[in-house]
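Quick one, tokens below. Sequence please?
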């Protein structure tokens, strides 16, 4: 019977989270409802991405976002889908999106206790050529439901109650942590359900891959330059690491999580804080990597200890296998 059990006893993401939440006496199903709306948004974006080329969803939307980036049609569409999904869930009170300059404070009639920070479409530069892209989200609990302020989303990443991403690639995979490990779910299009395919993901302690945009090497600070040099010309007799860089954070981090290694977006002379945004890129990915046994570093401190000042703050990030991040931490510490 064991083999059949998997086929007839489907562990869907909803069922999995219900199991998890039932271990928390205080939970009243609110998180499960919020998650079901996130799942709805991911399914919608997955189908839009898969037919983007056909449905004229390629190309620019003719607007520019607060990041100074030209918004793609899918950036705008995905943002609207997730904003509406979160509002209609009735479980959120503040929403922060890469694509919106200001935070959205939910109307009191539809207010819930969760604050969601999200990147509706990550890797936009890869949309038009069909390379994997994704959605990234992090969830905070509001501090005082009767006094909701922007500080509820300017908390350090370690205060997140959940984080995850959905990768729209050869398959649609949703990776989620609610604070006790990391699990991966793959969309079965015939059922329209996310099924548990990667239970209890643990990142290898050390990897053979480094992932960074070498095109920025001219501007790197010396610790980053030294570390990358060590990857390419190891002095301890080990073989050089392979370079893998996709340019969509979701895809680069997903590969790092499953295969091990290190993903870096360093600061440099031109942009000392690097490019990746703290709330909806650095924090959720750092949270997942730590939950899987790895670590995430900013070049100065543990990434999840950072306290953002503004909702679109950026930070350098070095994340991945525990031992690999230790190596670059040692170089930064010695450099101080
Ligand atoms: P987004 O498409 O949400 O703006 O994010 C793009 C980010 C991230 O996905 C990726 O790691 C990084 O940009 C790549 O930047 P470079 O092209 O500068 O390497
Ligand atoms: Mn962008
Ligand atoms: Mn992004
Ligand atoms: Mn984005």
């Amino acid at each position: 019977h064991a083999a059949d059990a998997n086929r007839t006893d489907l562990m869907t993401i909803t069922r999995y989270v219900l199991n998890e939440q039932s271990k928390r006496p205080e939970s009243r199903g609110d998180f499960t409802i919020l998650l079901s709306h996130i799942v709805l948004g991911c399914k919608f974006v997955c189908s839009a991405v898969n037919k983007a080329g056909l449905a004229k969803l390629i190309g620019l939307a003719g607007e520019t976002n607060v990041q100074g980036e030209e918004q793609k049609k899918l950036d705008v569409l995905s943002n609207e889908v997730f904003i509406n999904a979160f509002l209609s869930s009735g479980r959120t009170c503040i929403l922060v999106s890469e694509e919106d300059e200001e935070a959205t404070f939910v109307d009191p009639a539809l207010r819930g206790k969760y604050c969601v920070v999200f990147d509706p479409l990550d890797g936009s530069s890869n949309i038009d050529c069909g390379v994997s892209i994704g959605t990234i989200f992090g969830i905070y609990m509001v501090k005082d439901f009767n006094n909701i302020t922007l500080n509820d989303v300017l908390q350090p990443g370690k205060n997140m109650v959940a984080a995850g991403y959905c990768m729209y690639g050869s398959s649609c995979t949703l990776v989620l942590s609610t604070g006790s490990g990391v699990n991966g779910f793959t969309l079965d299009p015939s059922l329209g359900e996310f099924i548990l395919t990667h239970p209890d993901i643990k990142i290898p302690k050390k990897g053979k891959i480094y992932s960074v945009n070498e095109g920025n090497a001219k501007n790197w600070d010396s610790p980053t330059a030294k570390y990358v040099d060590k990857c390419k010309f190891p002095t301890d007799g080990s073989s050089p690491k392979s370079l893998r860089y996709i340019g969509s954070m979701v895809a680069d981090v997903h590969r790092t999580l499953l295969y091990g290694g290190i993903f870096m977006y360093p600061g440099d002379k031109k942009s000392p804080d690097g490019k990746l945004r703290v709330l909806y890129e650095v924090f959720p990915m750092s949270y997942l990597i730590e939950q899987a046994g790895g670590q995430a570093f900013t070049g100065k401190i543990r990434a999840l200890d950072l306290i953002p000042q503004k909702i679109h703050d950026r930070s350098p990030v070095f994340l991945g296998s525990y031992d690999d991040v230790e190596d670059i931490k040692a170089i930064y510490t010695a450099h101080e």
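The chain has a mean pLDDT of 93. The first helix runs from residue 2 to 8.
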